[in-house]
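Aim 2 progress update. The chain analyzed this quarter is reproduced below.
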Amino acid sequence: MTTQTRHLFLIAIVVSLGGFVFGFDASVISGVVGFVSREYQLDVWQEGLVVSAPTLAAILASLTVVPFSDVVGRKRMLLIVAVLYLVSAVWAAFATGFITLVLARAVGGLAFGSLMITPVYVAEIAPAGQRGVLVSINQMNIVVGLSAAYFSNYLLSALAARGGGWVSSLGIDMWTWRWMLGMEIIPALAWVLLLRFIPESPRWLIVHNRPDEARAVLRRLVPAEEIGPQVAAVQAATRDAGAGAGPRLSQVFSRKLRYVMLIGLVVGVAQQITGINAVFFFATSIFEQSGVGTDAAFVQAVWVGLINVVFTIVAMMLIDRIGRRPLLLGGLAGVVISLGLAGWGFHQATYRLDSAALQRLEPALATRLAPIVDRVFTSDLDFKRAARGELGTDDFKRHEGRLIQAAIRLNPFVVLAGILGFVAAFAVSLGPVMWVVLSEIFPNHLRGLAMAAVGFLNAGVSFMVQFLFPWELATLGNAGTFFLYAAFGLVFFGLVALIMPETKGRTLEELEGELTAPRVRHG
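Predicted structure tokens:
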């Protein structure tokens, strides 16, 4: 490995630490939401808002972060979002109620723009042959962050259950969910400090008529003989980059860019509409619905993180070898099959509280549930409705996990296999490949605005998935919810097969010429 290549990978790793912070911020709520819901007596809509508040704020960030970075620079924008993550982590850990918690998490959502600015920055410093793997480092860090949050939640939950000694003195047993949220402070602070040492994007410098500074950066990234041709190629591709935001916005939605925008919008929606963030952010709750109990649910959530890491590594190994299109199509096929398996697993479940199950509950609770003892329910909706009718909403919410564990009759490994298969299929395809594709297909001088448009739709779909998930479980049931996601996956498999080109191995300037040329036909 050359000195330039080592430097490239080091910069990509530092910049992509934002992916770790995002992953941690996004998935830590999976262990928090149950505690918060019980403490603040939240309904399904409030639960959805606590989980989805960052993504709601990310809709605003998606419209502003990359275009703003076009003005202030990629590096400065990365520092701004890093500080926002840090502020959000501190505020959320010390939130005093439902509203302040939502606001604190929304501040973190403003930093979710790191999902777009990081791949843009890395794509702009990476050689064509290494761009896929370098951009995918961000996705790798995201899944490591997801896993770290699941493991941190599990560890803190286990410590809280054990109690005593230093655990009680630090308040881990009393304020478990605050410790879960507060752990994000460590990686957020580290990212703020490390970003000070990265250079500005050379392509951004060239677009802003600072070629000498760009050459100084490129000397550390590419062989000397490649510097001149790279500078000339970017200058040639960005002659109209000085146009104002209005004219450039009209170019984004012009006939010339219609095809690449269609690619971006289809892939951007496909990544979220199949429900991945519902699984990541509600992992513990989903596994509780399969009847394994709260402790086992935390353990199985750790498995989600580990599978995510393993198959993201697989994607990084394959993306510059077999290409983007095969990974997307293969992954979407796996998504459909896995979600269908999870839905079928829940569909086969029955629910029955027998006398043996009641003996494991408190006598007062068992007495109140006596009217539904030995009744067989063929859906989770019917069982929950009956139990809620006997206990009332608050008491049912407090004991829901235990009641489902006592009453459900299904093979939880079928559901686990479906969920883990879904995560694996996503991690090898839609997770990393979407951001690689988006960082490649748009012209240099329009990349910020175009990615903002796609990011807006991506964040909007993600918000709706997270916000509606508790309502979907309460209305459609577990099986219906997963069958719905599988149907979305099937639709988008067809769309991707129809329009997605292959982009591996080409420079950004070559792709700009090929994908925006009127004579080109793709399929």
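The radius of gyration is 24 Å. Confidence is low (pLDDT under 50) at residues 519-523. These observations will guide the mutagenesis experiments scheduled for the next reporting period.
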